[in-house]
Amino acid sequence: MYIKKIASKKDQIMYCESTSNYTWIYFDDGSKILLAKTLKMLESFLTSYTFIRIHSKYLVNRKWISSYSKVNYEIKLYSDKNLPVAKRRRSAVKKSLFSSLV
Fold it and tell me: pTM of the predicted model, to two decimals?
């Protein structure tokens, strides 16, 4: 039920944050909701859109990413929120972000 609602608002989702077996979903209007679903479950659904996994705790909508810092290994969102990129995901994140530029 909630997954269908989430799917209808996928363009408004900036990022998702894992907290054990729950996931916070943050929207562009500043609101957030807590789902009793794992981030892995949401990832399997949302990565077919414009979402990328940047960390064990974070799944980010690419359209809300304003920059990527190679120094701090962080992604900055248009909302000025900085999110860390995990060491083991850096290569895949860079490839995903910069492949659309070529």
Answer: 0.89
Q: What is the pLDDT along the chain (102 residues), one digit of tens a residue?
A: 467 777 788 899 999 999 989 999 999 999 999 999 999 998 888 877 889 999 999 999 999 999 999 899 999 999 999 999 999 999 999 988 887 554
Cβ-in-10-Å burial (0-12, 13-18, 19+) of 99 comes to exposed
Calculated CA dihedral for residues 28, 30, 36, 40, nearest 10 degrees: 40
How many residues does this entry show for the chain?
102
Angle ∠(57,6,64) on CA atoms, nearest 5: 60
Greatest CA separation for the chain: 41
How does DSSP classify residue 63?
G
Rounded distance between C-alpha atoms, residue 21 and residue 26, angstroms: 17
Domains of the chain as residue ranges with CATH: 2-89 (2.40.50.1020)
